[in-house]
Amino acid sequence: xxxxxxxxxxLVNLSQFEKGDKAQREAFVQELGNAxxxxxxxxxxxxxxxxxxxxxxxxxxxxxxxxxVETKRKYEVEGAAGQRGYTSFGKEHAKQSQVADLKExxxxxxxxxxxxxxxxVPNPEVTEVPQFMSLGTQLYRSFEAAGGxxxxxxxxYLGRDEKYFDEYIVDGMSILRAIHYPPxxxxxxxxxxxxxxxxxxxxxxxxxxxxxxxxxxNTAGEWQEIVPENDEIVINVGDMLQRLTxxxxxxxxxxxxxxxxxxxxEPRLSIPFFLHPRPEMRLDVLPSTVTDDRPVAYEPxxxxxxxxxxxxxxxxxx
Length: 318
Hints:
The protein is an alpha+beta fold. Helices cover 29% and strands 18% of the residues. It has one domain: B-lactam Antibiotic, Isopenicillin N Synthase, Chain (Jelly Rolls), CATH 2.60.120.330. It has an 8-stranded mixed sheet. A 4-stranded antiparallel sheet has the order 6-11-8-9, with no helix packed on it. The relative contact order is 0.17. Pfam families: 2OG-FeII_Oxy, DIOX_N.
């Protein structure tokens, strides 16, 4: 009998917050907030994202990434800085690295009715795999709903009104990203599948990948593997939320390592949802998070300005 790996992140049940009584909701708020404060990562069950939808999107994504490179390149969107459509292998790197990560990806962004806004670029339709975009859009909405609930709990943890984030995430700049790490065919020069980094956004929601490799760096500087179980999704704090809370909530460094050599032939597929607010949201440090021990750590900035700055750092925007 195989022994399951010890847990490295706490596990919470979102239905306790969405459907529980006052005591259950308060307990959830504390558990989630403490996980974000102490570790920056948490596993979540009871999130309401249908397993069939996740499984079907995985299948469609695999079909897309199996297409010839020249076909996939039809879906690279000029000027979108990787925020819509296909980004080919070797384009993105961690901000402290000049070596590109070993991945290609496809990004689905917010669909809004007002096409006159130059902030939003339409998502291209993938004609070769028609279900890819329809399933992706459904999954986007499911992630958005679960993420909204988690942010309501975090608002309460921070002593704010429960709906503090609501107005900012409606029509926000969130991204659903399907990442394909192809089989490794030769000794990599120095890159790993995804070099150590922190996410840019408020929070990231990640459904279990098709293979292992995700690791977080703990406060002692040690790398610990994260192994999601069953229908668990992994949530982590992004730099925007860390910035807003003056480092009280932690945007923890993480990476995706290469598998053992005997598993190099296995590709890896991963589906993160990066929950972003609207570009005009201010990320100025919340006064309640400033103390003598934790003075203001960041200059005032909007979410749009911060995203722009970070996309340039990681090589997606020129």
